[in-house]
Amino acid sequence: MNKKKLIIGTRSSKLALWQANYIAECIRNQYPDLEVSLRHIMTTGDKILDVPLAKIGGKGLFTKELENAMLAEEIDLAVHSLKDMPTQLPEGLVLAVITERVDPGDALISPQYHTIDNLPQGAKVGTSSLRRKAQLLKYRPDLKISDLRGNLDTRLKKMDTEKLDAIILAVAGLKRLGWQELITQVLPNEICLPAVGQGALALEARANDHEVLAILEFLNHQETRWAAEAERAYLAEVEGGCQIPIGVYAYVEKDVLSLEATILSVDGKRQLRQTVSGQPSEGIKLGRVLAQEMLDAGGREILQELQ
């Protein structure tokens, strides 16, 4: 190995730094002679905190500046939450690694009521995600959904300052920061399907940087990669960023990949939900097929109304 130094680009939030430091440690353990450092980069999504994600363009908001730094060769790779990654990457960049998935689910935090069924009529629930909002309203149309932006600490504080009865956050982020004791319920998939790639980390690098790609290869988790590629293929086909209410989840068990997805209207009143399964290595094809079937079965009309 000729490379002596590796620079990892990361956002500066607590969770982003945990993720980048975790990856840096894994690389140092695998390659003790390699000097690994972090560079903090501010993204558009970090700067605009008072507007719902859906209104300012969804995905890409947390990745673009990191990608520009990579293309300018200021950093060697970037660590992202896979769920923040657009399905189309800029020319010259690749998804080098998808790590093993931590819990993909959504967590309800409600110190007073504990579960979604126990929330009183008209309870105020905070979430920044249209996907969560639509699925919560499908299950509990009486809930009042309040828009919740900011990093994890900010969102947890808003629970008190905005007098919310519950907030919904990704289980994986809470676990990574050691805050799992705050979780009062993990929402079952029947109520809330996760976001594409939720729970996995993505390492993005330059497509032509073969040395860095080779260094990172040991971090790839094949079953998670198959599942995530199926989910991302589904998302690419329905062309969804943060701004459309779809949930999708794939997993591999006994050499079979199962993929379940849902498309909803924002108010949750209309929902399509379907499952498909097949060979893990055909995940991308399965994702595309399921997307087309659901679009043809009424998904297209639901999504057109959102435009």
Q: Could you walk me through the main structural features you see in this protein, from its secondary elements to its overall organization?
A:
The chain has 307 residues and is of the alpha/beta class. It folds into three domains: 5-100 and 200-220, D-Maltodextrin-Binding Protein, domain 2 (3-Layer(aba) Sandwich), CATH 3.40.190; 106-186, D-Maltodextrin-Binding Protein, domain 2; 236-306, Double Stranded RNA Binding Domain. The protein is built from nine helices and 13 strands. 44% of the residues are buried. The mean pLDDT is 92.
Task: Give a short synopsis of this structure.
The chain has 3 domains: 5-100 and 200-220, 3-Layer(aba) Sandwich (D-Maltodextrin-Binding Protein, domain 2), CATH 3.40.190; 106-186, D-Maltodextrin-Binding Protein, domain 2, CATH 3.40.190; 236-306, Double Stranded RNA Binding Domain (2-Layer Sandwich). 34% of the residues lie in helices and 24% in strands. The chain contains 9 helices and 13 strands.
